[in-house]
Amino acid sequence: MSDRKDVSGVQKFLDQLGLTPLGVLCLVVLAALPFIPPFTKEYLRRWLIMAILLGSQSMAFDFTAGYIGIVNFGFCAFMGLGAYTSAVLAAKAGVSPWFGLFISIPPAALLGFLTGVLTLRLRGIFAAVMAWFVGLALMGITIKWVKVTEGPLGLNTPALLKTTSNLPYFYIILVMMLVVYIVLKKVVRSPFGLAFRAIGQNMEAARTSGINPTRYRIFNFTLSCAIAGWLGGFYAHYLGVLMPDVMSTAKTIEVLVVAYIGGRGSIWGGLFAAIPFFIAMELVRSSLSNLPGLNLILYGLFLIVIMIYYPGGVANIYQTLVSRVKNPFIRRLVNRNV
After folding, report:
1. Where are the domains of the chain?
2. Which residue of 12, 15, 67, 78 pairs with 228 in a disulfide if CB–CB is 3.0 to 4.6 A?
3. Does CATH place domain 13-337 in 1.10.3470?
4. Quick one: average pLDDT of 31-49?
5. Could you please report the per-residue DSSP string of 226-249?
6. 225-253 tens-digit pLDDT
Protein backbone atom coordinates (compact mmCIF):
# COMPACT_ATOMS: atom_id res chain seq x y z
CA MET A 1 0.00 0.00 0.00
CA SER A 2 2.81 2.40 0.90
CA ASP A 3 4.55 1.56 -2.40
CA ARG A 4 1.44 2.62 -4.30
CA LYS A 5 1.28 5.87 -2.34
CA ASP A 6 4.94 6.53 -3.08
CA VAL A 7 4.40 5.92 -6.80
CA SER A 8 1.33 8.15 -6.90
CA GLY A 9 3.25 10.85 -5.00
CA VAL A 10 6.09 10.72 -7.50
CA GLN A 11 3.63 10.86 -10.40
CA LYS A 12 1.89 13.86 -8.86
CA PHE A 13 5.22 15.63 -8.36
CA LEU A 14 6.25 14.95 -11.98
CA ASP A 15 2.85 16.13 -13.20
CA GLN A 16 3.28 19.42 -11.32
CA LEU A 17 6.56 19.92 -13.19
CA GLY A 18 4.91 19.04 -16.50
CA LEU A 19 7.01 15.88 -16.83
CA THR A 20 6.10 12.30 -17.64
CA PRO A 21 8.07 9.14 -16.80
CA LEU A 22 9.10 8.96 -20.47
CA GLY A 23 10.22 12.59 -20.32
CA VAL A 24 12.32 11.90 -17.21
CA LEU A 25 13.90 8.91 -18.95
CA CYS A 26 14.78 11.11 -21.94
CA LEU A 27 16.34 13.68 -19.58
CA VAL A 28 18.42 10.98 -17.89
CA VAL A 29 19.65 9.72 -21.27
CA LEU A 30 20.43 13.27 -22.36
CA ALA A 31 22.34 13.96 -19.13
CA ALA A 32 24.40 10.81 -19.66
CA LEU A 33 25.01 11.45 -23.37
CA PRO A 34 28.35 13.34 -22.97
CA PHE A 35 29.85 10.19 -21.42
CA ILE A 36 28.69 7.91 -24.23
CA PRO A 37 30.97 7.61 -27.31
CA PRO A 38 31.24 9.39 -29.69
CA PHE A 39 29.85 12.29 -27.60
CA THR A 40 32.91 12.14 -25.36
CA LYS A 41 34.64 14.24 -28.03
CA GLU A 42 34.73 17.96 -27.24
CA TYR A 43 33.36 19.15 -30.59
CA LEU A 44 30.34 16.85 -30.26
CA ARG A 45 29.72 18.06 -26.72
CA ARG A 46 29.82 21.59 -28.14
CA TRP A 47 27.21 20.58 -30.69
CA LEU A 48 25.04 19.16 -27.92
CA ILE A 49 25.26 22.43 -25.99
CA MET A 50 24.26 24.49 -29.02
CA ALA A 51 21.47 22.01 -29.84
CA ILE A 52 19.99 22.29 -26.33
CA LEU A 53 20.29 26.08 -26.55
CA LEU A 54 18.43 25.96 -29.87
CA GLY A 55 15.78 23.70 -28.34
CA SER A 56 15.33 26.12 -25.42
CA GLN A 57 14.92 28.98 -27.88
CA SER A 58 12.36 27.00 -29.86
CA MET A 59 10.29 26.41 -26.70
CA ALA A 60 10.16 30.16 -25.99
CA PHE A 61 9.39 30.84 -29.67
CA ASP A 62 6.61 28.23 -29.72
CA PHE A 63 5.12 29.77 -26.59
CA THR A 64 4.21 32.78 -28.76
CA ALA A 65 3.77 31.26 -32.22
CA GLY A 66 1.95 28.15 -31.02
CA TYR A 67 -0.40 29.70 -28.48
CA ILE A 68 -1.28 33.24 -29.57
CA GLY A 69 -0.47 32.86 -33.27
CA ILE A 70 2.21 35.58 -33.44
CA VAL A 71 5.40 34.62 -35.27
CA ASN A 72 8.15 36.72 -33.70
CA PHE A 73 10.54 37.24 -36.62
CA GLY A 74 12.75 39.36 -34.36
CA PHE A 75 13.13 36.63 -31.72
CA CYS A 76 16.91 36.26 -31.99
CA ALA A 77 17.34 40.03 -31.79
CA PHE A 78 15.84 39.92 -28.28
CA MET A 79 18.22 37.09 -27.49
CA GLY A 80 21.05 39.22 -28.88
CA LEU A 81 19.99 42.17 -26.72
CA GLY A 82 20.30 40.00 -23.62
CA ALA A 83 23.64 38.66 -24.85
CA TYR A 84 25.09 42.13 -25.52
CA THR A 85 23.76 43.54 -22.23
CA SER A 86 25.54 40.87 -20.22
CA ALA A 87 28.65 40.90 -22.44
CA VAL A 88 29.12 44.69 -22.38
CA LEU A 89 28.68 44.86 -18.61
CA ALA A 90 31.18 42.04 -18.11
CA ALA A 91 33.75 43.26 -20.65
CA LYS A 92 33.53 47.03 -20.06
CA ALA A 93 32.39 47.32 -16.42
CA GLY A 94 33.82 44.16 -14.87
CA VAL A 95 30.42 42.77 -13.83
CA SER A 96 30.50 39.05 -13.02
CA PRO A 97 29.19 36.94 -15.95
CA TRP A 98 27.04 35.00 -13.48
CA PHE A 99 25.36 38.22 -12.41
CA GLY A 100 25.18 39.35 -16.03
CA LEU A 101 23.37 36.14 -16.90
CA PHE A 102 20.35 37.47 -14.98
CA ILE A 103 20.86 41.15 -15.86
CA SER A 104 20.28 40.05 -19.46
CA ILE A 105 16.61 39.37 -18.67
CA PRO A 106 15.15 42.88 -17.91
CA PRO A 107 16.27 44.68 -21.13
CA ALA A 108 14.91 41.90 -23.37
CA ALA A 109 11.68 41.75 -21.33
CA LEU A 110 11.25 45.55 -21.38
CA LEU A 111 11.80 45.79 -25.13
CA GLY A 112 9.48 42.83 -25.61
CA PHE A 113 6.83 44.59 -23.54
CA LEU A 114 7.18 47.86 -25.48
CA THR A 115 7.13 46.02 -28.80
CA GLY A 116 4.03 44.15 -27.66
CA VAL A 117 2.26 47.34 -26.61
CA LEU A 118 2.98 48.90 -30.01
CA THR A 119 2.34 45.91 -32.25
CA LEU A 120 0.06 43.36 -30.63
CA ARG A 121 -3.01 45.52 -31.19
CA LEU A 122 -2.42 44.78 -34.87
CA ARG A 123 -3.67 41.63 -36.55
CA GLY A 124 -2.41 39.10 -39.03
CA ILE A 125 1.06 39.53 -40.47
CA PHE A 126 1.44 43.13 -39.21
CA ALA A 127 2.56 42.18 -35.69
CA ALA A 128 5.11 39.68 -37.04
CA VAL A 129 6.50 42.24 -39.51
CA MET A 130 6.77 44.92 -36.82
CA ALA A 131 8.67 42.51 -34.56
CA TRP A 132 10.98 41.80 -37.50
CA PHE A 133 11.59 45.54 -37.99
CA VAL A 134 12.49 45.91 -34.32
CA GLY A 135 14.97 43.06 -34.75
CA LEU A 136 16.52 44.69 -37.81
CA ALA A 137 16.81 48.01 -35.97
CA LEU A 138 18.54 46.31 -33.02
CA MET A 139 20.99 44.59 -35.34
CA GLY A 140 21.74 47.88 -37.09
CA ILE A 141 22.43 49.62 -33.77
CA THR A 142 24.73 46.76 -32.73
CA ILE A 143 26.72 47.02 -35.97
CA LYS A 144 27.07 50.82 -35.89
CA TRP A 145 27.62 51.42 -32.15
CA VAL A 146 31.22 50.27 -32.37
CA LYS A 147 32.37 52.15 -29.27
CA VAL A 148 30.21 49.89 -27.08
CA THR A 149 29.63 46.68 -29.06
CA GLU A 150 32.85 46.57 -31.15
CA GLY A 151 30.55 46.10 -34.16
CA PRO A 152 31.54 43.52 -36.81
CA LEU A 153 34.94 43.06 -35.14
CA GLY A 154 33.29 41.08 -32.36
CA LEU A 155 33.11 41.72 -28.63
CA ASN A 156 35.35 39.53 -26.47
CA THR A 157 33.34 38.40 -23.45
CA PRO A 158 34.54 36.79 -20.19
CA ALA A 159 33.61 33.13 -19.85
CA LEU A 160 31.29 31.79 -17.16
CA LEU A 161 33.89 29.24 -16.12
CA LYS A 162 37.67 29.15 -16.23
CA THR A 163 37.86 25.86 -18.10
CA THR A 164 38.27 24.73 -21.69
CA SER A 165 36.01 21.72 -21.13
CA ASN A 166 32.50 21.81 -22.57
CA LEU A 167 31.11 19.40 -19.96
CA PRO A 168 30.27 21.98 -17.23
CA TYR A 169 28.58 24.21 -19.80
CA PHE A 170 26.52 21.25 -20.97
CA TYR A 171 24.99 20.82 -17.52
CA ILE A 172 24.45 24.56 -17.09
CA ILE A 173 22.42 24.81 -20.29
CA LEU A 174 20.64 21.55 -19.41
CA VAL A 175 19.44 23.10 -16.12
CA MET A 176 18.47 26.32 -17.91
CA MET A 177 16.52 24.31 -20.48
CA LEU A 178 14.66 22.46 -17.73
CA VAL A 179 13.80 25.76 -15.99
CA VAL A 180 12.49 27.22 -19.27
CA TYR A 181 10.35 24.14 -19.88
CA ILE A 182 8.88 24.04 -16.36
CA VAL A 183 8.10 27.78 -16.33
CA LEU A 184 6.39 27.67 -19.74
CA LYS A 185 4.52 24.48 -18.92
CA LYS A 186 3.19 25.93 -15.65
CA VAL A 187 2.01 29.07 -17.45
CA VAL A 188 0.37 27.02 -20.20
CA ARG A 189 -1.49 24.90 -17.60
CA SER A 190 -2.68 27.98 -15.72
CA PRO A 191 -5.72 30.14 -16.60
CA PHE A 192 -3.30 32.19 -18.72
CA GLY A 193 -2.76 29.13 -20.90
CA LEU A 194 -6.50 28.71 -21.43
CA ALA A 195 -6.73 32.36 -22.44
CA PHE A 196 -3.79 31.94 -24.86
CA ARG A 197 -5.47 28.97 -26.54
CA ALA A 198 -8.77 30.83 -26.82
CA ILE A 199 -7.03 33.83 -28.39
CA GLY A 200 -5.04 31.64 -30.78
CA GLN A 201 -8.13 29.79 -31.97
CA ASN A 202 -10.59 32.66 -32.28
CA MET A 203 -9.79 36.13 -30.96
CA GLU A 204 -13.31 37.50 -31.38
CA ALA A 205 -14.83 34.55 -29.50
CA ALA A 206 -12.23 35.02 -26.75
CA ARG A 207 -13.09 38.72 -26.49
CA THR A 208 -16.82 37.98 -26.18
CA SER A 209 -15.95 35.54 -23.38
CA GLY A 210 -14.46 38.40 -21.35
CA ILE A 211 -10.79 37.90 -22.27
CA ASN A 212 -8.69 40.95 -23.07
CA PRO A 213 -6.62 39.66 -26.04
CA THR A 214 -4.13 42.54 -26.04
CA ARG A 215 -3.21 42.15 -22.37
CA TYR A 216 -2.68 38.38 -22.63
CA ARG A 217 -0.75 38.66 -25.88
CA ILE A 218 1.57 41.30 -24.39
CA PHE A 219 2.21 39.10 -21.34
CA ASN A 220 2.96 36.13 -23.57
CA PHE A 221 5.29 38.11 -25.83
CA THR A 222 7.11 39.71 -22.87
CA LEU A 223 7.76 36.37 -21.16
CA SER A 224 9.03 34.83 -24.40
CA CYS A 225 11.44 37.75 -24.94
CA ALA A 226 12.62 37.60 -21.31
CA ILE A 227 13.55 33.93 -21.76
CA ALA A 228 15.31 34.80 -25.02
CA GLY A 229 17.39 37.41 -23.18
CA TRP A 230 18.35 34.93 -20.47
CA LEU A 231 19.46 32.37 -23.04
CA GLY A 232 21.37 35.15 -24.80
CA GLY A 233 23.36 35.75 -21.61
CA PHE A 234 24.50 32.13 -21.65
CA TYR A 235 25.30 32.32 -25.37
CA ALA A 236 27.55 35.35 -24.87
CA HIS A 237 29.57 33.89 -22.02
CA TYR A 238 29.83 30.45 -23.55
CA LEU A 239 31.15 31.41 -26.99
CA GLY A 240 33.45 34.14 -25.67
CA VAL A 241 33.10 36.31 -28.81
CA LEU A 242 29.86 38.07 -29.67
CA MET A 243 29.07 39.12 -33.25
CA PRO A 244 26.06 41.13 -34.51
CA ASP A 245 24.91 38.19 -36.64
CA VAL A 246 23.50 36.61 -33.47
CA MET A 247 20.54 38.94 -34.13
CA SER A 248 20.13 38.01 -37.80
CA THR A 249 16.84 36.86 -39.29
CA ALA A 250 18.57 33.65 -40.43
CA LYS A 251 19.07 32.70 -36.77
CA THR A 252 15.37 33.28 -36.09
CA ILE A 253 14.45 31.15 -39.11
CA GLU A 254 16.51 28.31 -37.65
CA VAL A 255 14.56 28.56 -34.39
CA LEU A 256 11.27 28.77 -36.32
CA VAL A 257 12.05 25.63 -38.35
CA VAL A 258 12.87 23.62 -35.22
CA ALA A 259 9.70 24.84 -33.45
CA TYR A 260 7.52 23.88 -36.44
CA ILE A 261 9.20 20.49 -36.87
CA GLY A 262 8.62 19.84 -33.17
CA GLY A 263 4.97 20.84 -33.41
CA ARG A 264 3.29 24.15 -32.70
CA GLY A 265 1.67 24.49 -29.31
CA SER A 266 3.52 21.53 -27.81
CA ILE A 267 6.42 23.33 -26.00
CA TRP A 268 8.47 20.10 -25.76
CA GLY A 269 8.34 19.27 -29.49
CA GLY A 270 10.94 21.83 -30.52
CA LEU A 271 13.33 20.64 -27.83
CA PHE A 272 12.93 17.02 -28.96
CA ALA A 273 13.57 17.96 -32.60
CA ALA A 274 16.47 20.34 -31.92
CA ILE A 275 19.20 17.80 -31.10
CA PRO A 276 18.99 15.56 -34.21
CA PHE A 277 18.20 18.59 -36.39
CA PHE A 278 21.16 20.66 -35.20
CA ILE A 279 23.63 17.77 -35.40
CA ALA A 280 22.41 16.93 -38.93
CA MET A 281 22.83 20.56 -40.02
CA GLU A 282 26.33 20.72 -38.55
CA LEU A 283 27.27 17.55 -40.40
CA VAL A 284 25.98 19.09 -43.63
CA ARG A 285 27.93 22.31 -43.01
CA SER A 286 31.16 20.51 -42.20
CA SER A 287 30.98 17.99 -45.05
CA LEU A 288 29.63 20.39 -47.69
CA SER A 289 31.45 23.58 -46.73
CA ASN A 290 31.89 24.44 -50.42
CA LEU A 291 28.12 24.99 -50.67
CA PRO A 292 27.41 28.02 -48.44
CA GLY A 293 23.74 28.69 -47.77
CA LEU A 294 22.74 25.06 -48.27
CA ASN A 295 21.36 24.99 -44.73
CA LEU A 296 18.84 27.73 -45.62
CA ILE A 297 17.62 25.67 -48.58
CA LEU A 298 17.24 22.66 -46.30
CA TYR A 299 15.30 24.78 -43.78
CA GLY A 300 12.83 25.68 -46.53
CA LEU A 301 12.48 22.06 -47.66
CA PHE A 302 11.91 20.90 -44.07
CA LEU A 303 9.19 23.52 -43.59
CA ILE A 304 7.45 22.57 -46.84
CA VAL A 305 7.44 18.85 -45.96
CA ILE A 306 6.20 19.51 -42.42
CA MET A 307 3.43 21.87 -43.53
CA ILE A 308 2.17 19.49 -46.22
CA TYR A 309 2.53 16.05 -44.62
CA TYR A 310 2.95 16.58 -40.84
CA PRO A 311 1.42 19.96 -39.90
CA GLY A 312 1.31 18.87 -36.26
CA GLY A 313 5.03 18.07 -36.23
CA VAL A 314 6.79 15.53 -34.03
CA ALA A 315 4.39 16.13 -31.14
CA ASN A 316 1.39 15.16 -33.26
CA ILE A 317 3.15 12.02 -34.53
CA TYR A 318 3.90 11.05 -30.92
CA GLN A 319 0.29 11.64 -29.83
CA THR A 320 -0.99 9.55 -32.75
CA LEU A 321 1.32 6.66 -31.84
CA VAL A 322 0.29 6.85 -28.17
CA SER A 323 -3.41 6.80 -29.07
CA ARG A 324 -2.89 3.75 -31.29
CA VAL A 325 -1.10 1.94 -28.49
CA LYS A 326 -3.68 2.89 -25.87
CA ASN A 327 -6.86 2.23 -27.85
CA PRO A 328 -6.55 -1.59 -28.08
CA PHE A 329 -5.89 -1.72 -24.32
CA ILE A 330 -8.94 0.44 -23.64
CA ARG A 331 -11.07 -1.70 -25.96
CA ARG A 332 -10.00 -4.83 -24.10
CA LEU A 333 -10.96 -3.24 -20.79
CA VAL A 334 -14.37 -2.23 -22.18
CA ASN A 335 -15.00 -5.73 -23.56
CA ARG A 336 -14.12 -7.27 -20.18
CA ASN A 337 -16.51 -4.96 -18.36
CA VAL A 338 -19.27 -5.71 -20.86
Report:
1. 13-337
2. 78
3. yes
4. 94
5. HHHHHHHHHHHHHHSEE-GGGG-H
6. 999 999 999 999 999 889 998 998 889 98
